[in-house]
Amino acid sequence: MPVNVDAIESSDSSVRLQLAKKLLSQLDMSVPVVLATKSAVECLDVVQRVLVTKQDPLPVPASFLVDRLGQLMAVYKGTVSVDQVTRDVNDLERQSADPRDAAIPFPGLWAMDPFPADLLAIPAELTNIGRTQEALEYLVKHVPTKDLEAPITANQLTEIYLDIGRDLVRKGHPKDAEVALKQALKVDNTLVPARLALGEIYLLQKRIADAIRQYRAVLEIAPQQPVSLNNLAWLLATSPNQTIRNPEEAVTFAERLCAGTRYSEPLSLDTLAVALAANGQFERAIQYIGKAIALAKRVGKSTERMQTRLQLFRAGKPYIER
To answer: pTM higher than 0.90, yes or no?
Structure first.
């Protein structure tokens, strides 16, 4: 199927459509009119650059031969005859010869076996040019998360999923980011960075129970992980949802957090104070938030919110997020 790339930068698809119809009429071709998007052309360019050593831009015309299973079998740069395509289709269906033979102009013997396909090359390059959603779609469709084969390693696959997930969060696509991070966890269920990133996504979406589950899972893997300890303590102490609030457990997590910092980090002490107040221990809460305020002032951090919480604790009231 021909795809038109003329005036691809134009935002007026109706003009492009008329130009394409006029050209097809001149060529006496009765085929549907398909307009390429800039994204599609960039993705096709990535494919052809990954497949060949010579890094030339995608020419016009260019053709891609795809089999019945949707697998790319050949790339033609420049014009190609119907006879050539027919021969290639017949050769591929017979599968009697090395497909590489069709890519060279002279007969001969191959000195080495073909390298295994690197299925991460295309999504990695798509990520490099900012096409992270397309990279994610490719990975989910073509790269398994179990029983990985060389040259792909679990570390490589999880890293690219993490990179994609973080980029999608920055671009404001949390649902796609969630898919990427869950794919990373399918590869390695103990991947702390993926669970922390999921926790942050769930907090942004106000999915507090889901965030708590991720932070608990992190602590099963890394019991002293500070972000999980802090966020769990805070959520369990400040949630307005009574089914989520658990002040006693919040105090336990906050004390573990502060023990890891030797009670010398203001934000951790603030969290401990909030947890203590939620548990009705207002005198200790006042003591620790006072220390948090003093430490924060010493390093030039704002204490406005801590001062507001201090007033609540002095009035015998816990801090609840709204």
So the answer is: no
